[in-house]
Specification:
CATH topology of the largest domain in chain B: Helicase, Ruva Protein, domain 3
Structural class of chain B: mainly alpha
Order of helices and strands of chain B: HHHHH
Distance between the termini of chain B: 43 Å
Largest sheet of chain B: none
Distance between the termini of chain A: 59 Å
Order of helices and strands of chain A: HEEHEHEHEHEEHH
Low-confidence stretches of chain B: 154-158
Number of helices of chain A: 7
Number of domains of chain B: 2
Number of helices of chain B: 5
Mean pLDDT of chain B: 76
Structural class of chain A: alpha/beta
CATH superfamily of the largest domain in chain B: Cytochrome C biogenesis protein
CATH architecture of the largest domain in chain B: Orthogonal Bundle
Low-confidence stretches of chain A: 190-200
Strand content of chain B: under 5%
Mean pLDDT of chain A: 86
CATH class of chain A: Alpha Beta
Shape of chain B: extended
Radius of gyration of chain A: 21 Å
Oligomer: heterodimer
CATH class of the largest domain in chain B: Mainly Alpha
Radius of gyration of chain B: 29 Å
Number of domains of chain A: 1
C-alpha cells in the first residue's frame, strides 16, 4: 500500500483522464428526451399554407389519415430562423424524392418566414404543421431545431434525432427501423452501387 | 493579508449575487394566487433547461426555457401538484430535465458516487496520517540523537 500511495495522484489523473476522454463528443442535450417507444402525442395544429396547400386544422388522427397507410413517416422540426435547417434541407429533400412520407413542423416561426424558407429551398413536405407556440414541440420533448422523429404506421415514436439529419445519421439511427416497420426500399441499392464504384 | 482576503471575498460574494440580475425576467403575474408564486419559483429552479446544460429553466433565456416556464405556470394554475408537474416534464424530456434525479439503478453511481469518493478520501487521509505518525516517532529518535551528538560539541566550544 505504501508503494501505491505516491502513485495515487497519477492514478487519479489517469482515471479522470479516462472519464473525461469518454465524454468528449457526447452531447447530453441529445439524450434529453423520453418519448422514443411511446405513442406520438395528440395535437391540434393549423397547417402552413403553401402553394396549392391551404391552411387547415390537423389532429393526430387527421394527419395519419392524410399520410400513406401502413407506412412509417417522418416528422421534421424546422424553422426559417434555424441555420442548420438550411444545411440539412438537401437531405430532407432527398428523402422526399425517395418517397418517404414527410411531415414538416414549422417550429416557433412566422407564417411568412416559413413560406419564404420553402419558396427558397423547395418543399419536401407532404404536410406542413405550424407550431408557433411550441405546444406540440413541448409534448414531443423538442429542445430546438432541427429535430427529426421516425414514427411507425401505428403511431409509435421509433427514433429521434436532434441536430442535422444526414445520410450517416439515417443509416445509423433510422434505416433499420425504417425497414423493420414496413418502410419501402430507399436509396440503398443506388448508394450501394455508387459505393462499389467508388471502391473500384 | 486577512483584510485583502476579506475584500476579495466581498467582491466575489457581490459578484455571485449579481448573477441573480442575469436570470431571466418573467412577467408572470400571480397576484391573484400568491401561494403559487413560491411554488413557481421553486419549480423553475429545479427543472433544467434541455438546451442550455447548466441552467435551470428559471435562469435561462432560451426560447425552450420560456415555453417550459409558461407550461409550468399553466399547469400550476390548473391545480397540478409539484410532483405532477415534474413528472410531466420528465415524461417528455427524461430524467435529464430535473436537478433532483430519481433513485434507480441507472442513477446509483450518481447518488453513491460522492459517498464512495468520501470513503476513498477518508481512507487516503488515514493512510497518510498513519505514515506521518511513524515519521514522528522516527524524528523523535533522530532529535534525541542529535541532541546527544550536539551537546558535547557545544560544551566544547564554550
Amino acid at each position: 500500500m505504501k508503494k501505491i500511495m505516491p502513485l495515487m495522484p497519477f492514478i487519479i489523473f489517469i482515471l479522470l483522464g479516462i472519464v473525461f476522454y469518454l465524454s468528449i463528443g457526447r452531447d447530453p442535450t441529445l439524450v434529453a428526451n423520453n418519448l422514443v417507444g411511446k405513442d406520438f402525442p395528440d395535437f391540434q395544429l393549423e397547417s402552413l399554407a403553401f402553394e396549392d396547400q391551404e391552411s387547415r386544422p390537423y389532429s393526430l388522427q387527421g394527419l395519419q389519415r392524410a399520410l400513406p397507410e401502413g407506412q412509417p413517416w417522418i416528422l421534421n422540426v424546422w424553422g426559417s430562423w434555424c441555420p442548420q435547417c438550411y444545411v440539412e434541407h438537401p437531405f430532407i429533400t432527398a428523402l422526399s424524392d425517395a418517397g418517404v412520407a414527410l411531415v414538416g413542423m414549422n417550429y416557433k416561426d412566422e407564417t411568412a418566414k416559413g413560406q419564404g424558407f420553402l419558396k427558397k429551398m423547395g418543399n419536401p413536405y407532404q404536410i406542413i404543421l405550424q407550431d408557433m407556440e411550441g405546444s406540440l414541440g413541448l409534448d414531443l420533448g423538442v429542445s430546438g431545431a432541427p429535430e427529426t422523429y421516425l414514427v411507425s404506421p401505428q403511431g409509435e415514436i421509433l427514433a429521434r434525432h436532434a441536430g442535422v439529419l444526414d445520410k450517416a445519421v439515417w443509416d445509423q439511427k433510422f434505416a433499420k427501423l425504417w425497414q423493420d416497420n414496413n418502410g419501402h426500399q430507399l436509396f440503398s441499392r443506388q448508394s450501394e452501387a455508387t459505393e462499389e464504384q467508388g471502391a473500384e | 493579508m486577512v483584510k485583502t482576503a476579506f475584500k476579495l471575498f466581498c467582491c466575489l460574494f457581490a459578484l455571485q449575487l449579481s448573477s441573480q440580475l442575469f436570470a431571466a425576467v418573467d412577467p408572470v403575474d400571480f397576484s391573484q394566487q400568491p401561494e403559487l408564486e413560491e411554488r413557481y419559483r421553486a419549480l423553475t429552479h429545479t427543472l433544467r433547461c434541455p438546451k442550455c446544460q447548466n441552467q435551470s429553466i428559471g435562469g435561462s433565456d432560451a426560447p425552450i426555457a420560456l415555453d417550459m416556464r409558461h407550461k409550468v405556470e399553466g399547469l400550476l394554475r390548473e391545480g397540478k401538484t409539484n410532483q405532477e408537474i415534474e413528472q410531466f416534464m420528465i415524461d417528455r424530456y427524461g430524467d435529464y430535465v430535473t436537478y433532483d434525479p430519481p433513485f434507480k439503478s441507472r442513477t446509483y453511481l450518481l447518488w453513491f458516487g460522492p459517498l464512495i469518493f468520501l470513503i476513498i478520501v477518508v481512507f487516503g487521509f488515514w493512510m497518510t496520517f498513519r505514515r506521518k505518525g511513524d515519521d514522528v516517532i522516527y524524528d523523535d529518535d533522530e532529535d534525541s540523537l542529535d541532541e546527544d551528538d550536539l551537546h558535547p560539541s557545544k560544551g566544547g566550544q564554550k
